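Feature request disguised as a bug report, sorry. It would help if multi-protein outputs had a clear separator. Right now it looks like this:
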Amino acid sequence: MKAKKIDLSGYPTGQLDEKGQPVTYDVRKSLVSVLFHPGLQLDPFQVLEANELADKIRIGGDTILLSEQEYAKIQAGLKVIKGCQEADVEFVRRLIHAEEVELEEVEA
């Protein structure tokens, strides 16, 4: 079984906040936003499915493994997003170029 490995750790955007402190890009929050993008026009069943994946992202560690079906939901969200900015480059790179890993099945 194959999965996509995505780095959820934040990264510096190169920008400063109003207090002059470096701004860290919130990868986890942005990834959840991709799942619920208005351009997807999710129906009630799809929004519940998206929420299950969002919960997995919210509680995950610094990396997450996504099944092919889960990754397809991320890709669908990326396809409807318009207006990306320079700070989004690393985020988009992590998603589009996510490492594919082979998972071994464990017998119970």
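(second protein starts here, but nothing in the output says so)
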Amino acid sequence: MPMKLKTCITILWISIGLTTSAQRSRETLREKHEEHILQRGFFGMSAGASFPVLEFGSTDFSVPSSGYAGTGSNLNFQFSYEAFDMLGLSATYNIQQWRVNSAALAADLQAANTSVQVQQLSMEDYRLSGMFLGVFVPLRMPNTTFEIKAQMGYNNGNLPELNYNVRISTGDIYRIQIKEVTASDPAYIIGMQVKRRLYKDLLITGYANFLYSEQRYENIYVYNLTQGFAVRARDYTQYYHAINAGLGLAVQFN
């Protein structure tokens, strides 16, 4: 066999070997990359703080829907699945609670009613709970998934019980009570979430979102417990605006 032909055959075999080796290397790298991509299914629990904003967190007595709400907490149970490459479906059961700034409310009631003395005012906490359904857009990276989410659902809310004493100019004291009223109305959540692998199928999660809900309360009665009668008040709409943030744990599956 001529030398030139042997040389060509040798070069050809070397080229085939290098090409095959490179292809195998690319497949190995791709497999390793895919091993580190989080799976599509997710079930988890998370908890964090809730910060009232806008009307809900306002202590301006001149604004009818001021909620006098203080920092609260939220708890979430979430299921999600990436049904498509760039779109996932999610379901979340959400529980939230906020304390009331009773001192600020008492001071404002007193300022608005200078002919009487407002005493011993106390108000229970605000609460919301409900199921949300929605979609999210995932950005998948090795060991991490970042999501942008939008959900809507129905919240069960409460207008908290309010108690206070009114002392009039004669010295008589009347015990006033507005009993708790509940309602169920639509609610919306928009936000983001990040999921990071801790160990195998165990994940740590972090989230931040904005909650919006309007709860219309009816059949509100103001009770004069001292004299034993009640007066029906106007229906009232409380606007719930809150920024939520927290951490959680989850398990993943395909």
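Even a blank line would do. Unrelated, but nice: Confidence is low (pLDDT under 50) at residues 27-35.
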